[in-house]
Amino acid sequence: MACVEANLKRAKGGDLKVSVHRMEIERIRYVLSSYLRCRLVKIEKFFPHVLEKEKSRAEGEPSILSPEEFAFAKEYMANTETYLKNVGLKHMPPNLQKVSLLKSVPKPNLDSFVFLRVLERQENILVEPEFDEQRDYTIDLEEGSQHLIRYKVVAPLVASGAVQLI
Question: Please, one GO biological process term (predicted)?
């Protein structure tokens, strides 16, 4: 992006291509900042669960958070605990001064539907395991295809990189 901006500075100011490129750079900046805002909102909404998942991941397993997001989540949790202690819990009886944020904050809804793009062919994906025990509802995911499916069905595929959320 910096390279494109440097090229734009060297270009003629009145050229139509320059203004189109500047608009495209601003659009890219907006999309990226919107994406980052969405991630931060999700971290704030589910911070105990996100941190618990980070704590329980296996050695060598890739993190779902960037180092900056992980630091943000830890700081957010510390600030929330401090706020709760200073504002409310210190005025409670001693037996009620403990609060479990993991139990207090709602869990992410893994039954929600997501759009995904298949990067690697997958066969016999069990789509509705609880729907009917007499019959398996399985599908094959072809490389390059797009689907709308429950997140919990494809969560392992997302983690392995076989599919990509869109």
Answer: DNA-templated DNA replication
